[in-house]
Amino acid sequence: MKQTIYLDNAATTRTRPEVVEAMIPYFSQYYGNPSSIYEFSTPCKKVIARTRETIASSIGAKANEIYFTAGGTESDNWAIKATAEAYQAKGKHIITSRIEHHAVLHTCEYLEKRGFQVTYLDVDENGVVKLDQLKKAIRPDTILISIMFANNEIGTIQPIKEIGEIARSHGILFHTDAVQAYAHVPISVDAYNIDMMSVSGHKFNGPKGIGFLYIRTGIKSRSFIHGGAQERKRRGGTENVPGIAGMGKAVELAMADMEQRGEKERELRDYLIKRVLEEVPYTRLNGHRTNRLSNNANFAFQFIEGESLLIKLDMEGICGSSGSACTSGSLDPSHVLLAIGLPHEIAHGSLRLTLSQENTWEEMDYTVEKIKEIVAYLRNMSPLYEDFMRKSSAAAR
Known about the structure:
Oligomer: single chain
Shape: globular
Largest sheet: 7 strands, mixed
Strand content: 5-15%
C-alpha cells in the first residue's frame, strides 16, 4: 500500500487513540439512557456533565451555557434560526459576510425567503471583514451579526474582538462560527463579547457527529429540535453519550498542547508556503500572510484546474482539497476566492493544504516536489499557458 500524506485537516482530523478509548465504555458497558432515573444511567449523566464543564472552562463560559449538537452545521442553523424566531419582533435584519461557511450562508438564504433581510459584508484581498462596512450596515432593526472566527478555506482570522465590541455597543447579538478556530487559537467568550459560538468535535481530533453551541445566559433562544426535554428543553433527542465523552477527551488533549501544536504546524506551514511560492511560478497565497490559522496554506496556481491537481496529488498519496469539503462535488469556483477578488480562471486553480502536528518535514519536501511536477505537467497541456508564454516571449523581444 502506498504512503498517505494527509493534508486535509480542515475537512476532518484523525480521532486520537485516547479519544477512542474514552468513548468505548459508553457503547457496551455504560449504555443506559441518560434520561432514565435508575442508577445504571448515572455514569452517562456524569460524563455529560463533566464534558460540559470541560468545554465551558476552555472558553471561559458557564457549564449551563453549553449545548450539545451533532456538529458545526447544526450549531450554525440553531444559532441563526432560533435567534431570528425569538427576536423577530425587534427586527428582521441580519448581518453576515460573503465568505461564511455554507451552513451560515444557506441558513441566511432560507430566512430571506421568510421575510428577513440579510446584509452580506465584503472582505478585503486577504479575506478580512471590513469593519467600516459593518458599522454602516447596522440598522435599528438589526438583531444578529454572524461572522466566522477563522475562514475554513483560506485560514484568515477575523478581528473578532472588534466585531464583538461593535455588536455589544449597538445591543446586537453576536454569533461566530468557530469550527476551524476552536482548539487552535485561545478563545474567551467574555473578552470577545461572543453571545453564541458553534464548534464541531471532529476538527480537533474528536469524533464526527458531535459538536456544541455556546449560548450566553440571558439570550432568548427557542427550542431547535422538539420532542424531548434534553439540553434543558432546547434540543430534544437522546444524547450521543459516546460522542460527548470523546469530545470531552479531545478538548482536554487539545487545550493541553494547543501552543506547542500550533508552533509545530506554523513552522511546517511557513516552510511549505515559502518553497511553493519560490519554486512554482505564477502562484499566489490566498488569505492573510501571517494572521491565519497555524496549519492553513491555500494556493492559487494560474493556468491549471484545481480538480486535476487534486486527482494527480491523490495518485501520489497526497490528500488535499480545493476548498470546503461540504462543496467538494461542485464545479463552481470557491465563493471565498471570488470574494477576495480572484477571477474565475485563477480561482479554479486553487489548492488547500491543512496540516497537523503529525506531519513531517520530509512530507513537506515530498509534497512540494510533487506539486512542482504536476503543475508543470498540467501547464504544458494548457492552451492558456502556451498562449501566455508565447506573448511573454514576444514582449521580451
